[in-house]
């Protein structure tokens, strides 16, 4: 089901876990190593099922890929001709707004980026998650991410002792 857009660009079809379909140019899809390999191996003709990615999350991922493909020059000549600082500022603003989502969506985006092997998206979302928790205590992080403490008090004391540097403020 590889189609061609009006501008002659090849398109691929992504199918979310809940059956929604999203069209994406091959150029935009190339930000994902997983999709790039599938394109190279001609495995995208009937669409690409993404069983680990819901439609809501895939819509965000497609938005990210499209924006970054549109703003990133395709050739070195374009890079020289384009105003690099303006492009970088535009992407930085987009990225900041893109990750301004609830924690559940952020975690789903991290999982999708990892599944798709989309390194720039994974870096962006992981950095945002790290920024969110950097000043939190261990207990606060556990609460935010619904993590059960499976250490006994003695085991936790030992871990804290061995890694005291990590608990210094």
TrEMBL record:
Domain of life: Eukaryota
Organism: Oryza nivara
PANTHER family per record: SKP1
Record's function text: Involved in ubiquitination and subsequent proteasomal degradation of target proteins. Together with CUL1, RBX1 and a F-box protein, it forms a SCF E3 ubiquitin ligase complex. The functional specificity of this complex depends on the type of F-box protein. In the SCF complex, it serves as an adapter that links the F-box protein to CUL1.
Signal sequence bounds: none
Domain SKP1 component dimerisation: 119-166
Bilayer-spanning residue ranges: none
CDD domains tied to this protein: BTB_POZ_SKP1 (cd18322)
Quaternary structure annotation from Swiss-Prot or TrEMBL: Part of a SCF (SKP1-cullin-F-box) protein ligase complex.
Matching SUPFAM superfamilies: POZ domain, Skp1 dimerisation domain-like
Phylogenetic placement of the source organism: Eukaryota, Viridiplantae, Streptophyta, Embryophyta, Tracheophyta
Entry's family note: Belongs to the SKP1 family.
Key words, A-Z: Ubl conjugation pathway
Protein name: SKP1-like protein
Pfam families per record: Skp1, Skp1_POZ
């Amino acid at each position: 089901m590889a189609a061609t857009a009006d501008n002659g660009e090849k398109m691929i079809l992504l199918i979310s876990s809940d059956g929604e379909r999203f069209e994406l140019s091959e150029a935009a899809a190339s930000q994902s190593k997983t999709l790039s390999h599938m394109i190279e191996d001609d495995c995208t003709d009937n669409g690409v099922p993404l069983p680990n990615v819901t439609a809501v999350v895939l819509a965000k991922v497609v938005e990210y890929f499209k924006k970054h493909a549109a703003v990133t020059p395709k050739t070195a000549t374009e890079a020289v001709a384009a105003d690099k600082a303006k492009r970088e500022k535009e992407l930085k603003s987009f990225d900041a707004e893109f990750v301004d989502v609830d924690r559940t969506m952020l975690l789903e985006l991290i999982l999708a980026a990892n599944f798709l092997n989309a390194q720039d998206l994974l870096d962006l979302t992981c950095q945002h998650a790290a920024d969110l928790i950097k000043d939190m205590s261990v207990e606060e992080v556990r609460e935010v991410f619904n993590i059960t403490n499976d250490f006994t008090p003695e085991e936790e004391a030992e871990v804290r002792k061995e890694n005291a540097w990590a608990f210094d403020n």
